[in-house]
Specification:
By secondary structure, the chain is α/β, with parallel strands linked by helices. It is built from 8 helices and 5 strands; from the N terminus they run βααβαβαααβαβα. It is 47% helix and 15% strand.
Length: 174
C-alpha cells in the first residue's frame, strides 16, 4: 500500500524533498539530534511518524515557515528495562521525553509510544495520532504523514544539511 499514509521515507529523502530553506534544514538538524538522543538512550528499534506544517507546503498555503516538526516515535523499550526504569529514564531526560522541553531543545513536538506495552493502548494511541495527523487544522483538507525508521541514513542526511547550512549547494542536491 505505497499510496497509503503513513508514507515510508528515509532521512536522505527528507532532506532532499523538505530541506529547501535554512529554517527547514535547522528543523531537520534538530530532528536528527532528537533521533540520536533516543537511540543513545536505547530506543533504537522502531519508527517515527512525522507530520505537521513541516511536511506540507505551509510557506505556500499560509505564507510562513514551519515552527516545528510533529513526531510520534513508536519504539520498543530498551532491553532489560522494566516500567519503573523506563519511568526513571524519562524523568532523568525530560528534554527527550517531555514534549515542551523536546520542542525547545530539538524543534520537535515529540511523543513516545511503546511498541511493547499494552496492545489495546498501542492501537488506541496509533488511532489517535492517525486521526490527529490526517487533516490540516486550518481547512480540514486530507493529508498524510511520513514514516521514518529509527535506523535510517541519518549520517548521510546530516552531511547534506551541513553543506547547505554552511552556504554550499541546497540540501536537495548535496
Amino acid at each position: 500500500m505505497a499510496l497509503a499514509s503513513p508514507y515510508a521515507t528515509t532521512a536522505s529523502e527528507l532532506v532532499a524533498r523538505l530541506g529547501d530553506t535554512a529554517q527547514r534544514c535547522a528543523l531537520l538538524k534538530g530532528l536528527f539530534a532528537y533521533r540520536q538522543a533516543l537511540v543513545a538512550l536505547g530506543f533504537s528499534d522502531g519508527f517515527q511518524w512525522l507530520d505537521g506544517s513541516f511536511v506540507e507546503d505551509v510557506e505556500g498555503h499560509e505564507q510562513r515557515a514551519p515552527n516545528d516538526i510533529d513526531v510520534v516515535t513508536f519504539a520498543t523499550t530498551p532491553s532489560g528495562l522494566d516500567a519503573a526504569q523506563v519511568h526513571a529514564l524519562a524523568q532523568a531526560h525530560p528534554d527527550v521525553f517531555m514534549p515542551a522541553q523536546t520542542k525547545r531543545r530539538f524543534g520537535c513536538d515529540a511523543y513516545l509510544v511503546r511498541l511493547d506495552g499494552s496492545p489495546v493502548r498501542l492501537v488506541s494511541r496509533a488511532a489517535y495520532y492517525q486521526g490527529l495527523f490526517s487533516h490540516r487544522r486550518s481547512d480540514n483538507v486530507w493529508k498524510g504523514m511520513l514514516a521514518l525508521p529509527l535506523q535510517s541514513d541519518d549520517a548521510d542526511a546530516m552531511t547534506a544539511l551541513s553543506r547547505f547550512l554552511e552556504g554550499g549547494n541546497d540540501a536537495a542536491s548535496a
